[in-house]
Amino acid sequence: MKASPELAALMNKAIASEIQASMQYLWQHILWSGIDGHSTKDQFKELSDEERGHAEEIADRLYYLSGIPQKGLKASMAPVEIGDDLAARLELDKEAEQTAIDLYNQIIELCIEEDDKTTEWLFREILSDEEKHHDIITTLLEER
Questions:
Q1: Using alpha carbons only, what angle is made at residue 123 by residues 127 and 125, rounded to the nearest 5 degrees?
Q2: Helices H, strands E: what count in the chain?
Q3: Which helix (H) or strand (E) holds 104?
Q4: Number of folded domains that form the chain
Q5: In the chain, N or C terminus with fewer CB closer than 10 Å?
Q6: Along the chain (144 residues), what's the average pLDDT of each consecutive run of 10 residues?
Q7: Which residues have CB under 8 Å from 33's CB, separation 6+?
Q8: CATH number for the domain harbouring residue 16
């Protein structure tokens, strides 16, 4: 099985998104400050690790499907946004998670159209994680 050009492009976009999210959460973990930061720094580290793992899973699947990373992968990555304080960081994270959720739903629909059940399953698993991340971020925002 070979990925369609459209699916390969979306998978490359997903890889870039996961790498960006991993770096964003990593910096939020490293740059924590104050009591609020102390209470969330470990959560940011865990989210960073999960996002990096997603990037690797997607890249493995893309490679299997004979896809290759885009030559301009760096150019397709969104900038890492850290925010000036915890509330700003969480708002940025909430938006990023929603963007990922929307992208993964789009990929799942394309997988259904192309009858690619394995890639569909992979993205359903990752989508579930992203929805959990969104819930964590939303809960942290509500607790502020």
A1: 60
A2: 5, 0
A3: helix 86-114
A4: 1
A5: C
A6: 90 93 92 72 92 96 84 65 86 94 98 97 98 94 80
A7: none
A8: 1.20.1260.10
